[in-house]
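One such shown below:

_____
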Amino acid sequence: MKVLVADDDAIVRTLIVKAVESLGHVTIQAADGKQAWNILCNNQDIALLITDIMMPDMSGESLVKIIRGNEGTSSLPVIIVSGIVSIGEIEGILQLGNSCFIAK
């Protein structure tokens, strides 16, 4: 399975990539939401997105809204990994159609 990992923190991104690759999956990395969207547009075989919410240029929340509004990507499973721990914020994130939330 090909997994796109988007996080502006290179250390966190590397840790997630190593964990995903240790399970036998292929990864592609993005440093922000804009880069992640460009990768998604050019790689139809991505099966999962793991993304942070707080990123420069395009936030993870904006990225997910674009993904859900696009016919070709609307059903892509998304896992949010973020330092946000407020119950209200987490509920709002999950209402965007994300598959799950993992706190950093």
